[in-house]
């Protein structure tokens, strides 16, 4: 008999996004998504060599990514965008696995300041260290540092494991959400369950007439605009 906790984890780890869709949402090429999640092989002279995956959270050979895989991809991309090398990201996640037994960046809140990667531990692991943040690959040095938290503010984490449970790609003050319990994890309007792609397509078909879309789904103008903004952002 499965517990509620294990069932909740299942919905976060079950395959849900094709490589192409994961790439579209994370704004990565399909090739990069595949390499980060599955690794790859290449020929070197007469030998065939392999590069292991950057992320090992899914634990499956499925060609689909889970919700946690998707959030992991977002974190890795953010680290690279801020100048952290892929090799350093690999080592940081390896160290996090040793410290917390986690396979996911999406389990804890990870941050970067452009040179190092920091892990804010859960309250139970701080052992009285207050707001200290552990700097990965520093021999366990505890630091208090100004860090970039944009992505973390888009993610809603759930207890007791602290796994990412929802992603608000436009920020939690706007209604677009990816929730693995709603619309099979597709981008939708929070509390409504209407997919953003459907709202966008109807908006275009109705010559960008907000009233027509509003009448069809009984959405607010803000909800419609958020869906349109999100889909246009992905297409840019």
SSE inventory with pairings:
Blueprint: H1 4-13, E1 17-18, H2 19-26, H3 30-38, E2 40-44, E3 47-51, E4 64-65, H4 67-81, H5 86-100, E5 109-112, E6 117-120, H6 123-126, E7 133-135, E8 142-143, E9 155-158, E10 163-167, E11 176-177, E12 188-189, H7 196-205, H8 210-217, H9 221-235
Antiparallel strand pairs: 1-4, 2-3, 5-6, 6-7, 7-8, 9-10, 11-12
Helix pairs in contact: 2-3, 7-9
Write a brief structural summary.
It contains nine helices and twelve strands. The chain is an alpha+beta fold and 236 residues long.
Structure explained in plain terms:
- It is a single chain.
- This protein has 236 residues and is α+β, with helices and mostly antiparallel strands.
- It has helices spanning 4-13, 19-26, 30-38, 67-81, 86-100, 123-126, 196-205, 210-217, 221-235; strands at residues 17-18, 40-44, 47-51, 64-65, 109-112, 117-120, 133-135, 142-143, 155-158, 163-167, 176-177, 188-189.
- It starts with a helix and ends with a helix.
- Residues 1-7, 123-131 and 144-148 have low confidence and may be disordered.
Strand arrangement in the largest pleated sheet: 5-6-7-8
**Derived structural class:** alpha+beta
Taking the sheet with the most strands, its summary is: 4 strands, antiparallel
Topology pattern, helix = H, strand = E: HEHHEEEHHEEHEEEEEEHHH
Name the descriptors.
alpha+beta, two-stranded antiparallel ribbon, disordered N terminus, 236 residues, 9 helices, 12 strands, 4-stranded antiparallel β-sheet, single chain
């Amino acid at each position: 008999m499965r517990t509620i906790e294990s069932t909740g984890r299942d919905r976060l780890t079950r395959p849900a996004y094709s490589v192409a869709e994961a790439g579209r949402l994370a704004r990565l090429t399909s090739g990069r998504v595949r390499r980060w999640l599955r690794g790859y092989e290449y020929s070197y002279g007469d030998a065939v060599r392999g590069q292991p995956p950057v992320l090992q959270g899914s634990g499956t050979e499925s060609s689909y990514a889970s919700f946690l895989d998707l959030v992991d991809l977002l974190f890795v991309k953010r680290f690279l965008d801020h100048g952290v090398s892929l090799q350093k990201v690999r080592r940081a996640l390896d160290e996090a696995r040793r410290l917390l037994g986690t396979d996911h960046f999406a389990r804890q809140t990870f941050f970067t300041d452009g040179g190092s990667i920091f892990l804010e531990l859960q309250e139970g692991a701080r052992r009285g260290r207050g707001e200290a943040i552990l700097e990965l690959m520093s021999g366990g040095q505890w630091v208090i540092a100004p860090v970039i938290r944009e992505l973390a503010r888009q993610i809603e984490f759930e207890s007791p494991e602290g796994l990412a449970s929802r992603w608000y790609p436009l920020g939690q003050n706007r209604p677009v959400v990816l929730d693995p319990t709603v619309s099979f994890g597709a981008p939708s309007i929070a509390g409504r369950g209407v997919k953003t792609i459907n709202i966008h397509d109807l908006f275009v078909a109705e010559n960008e007439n907000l009233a027509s879309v509003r009448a069809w789904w009984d959405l607010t103008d803000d909800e419609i605009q958020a869906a349109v903004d999100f889909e246009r952002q992905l297409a840019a």
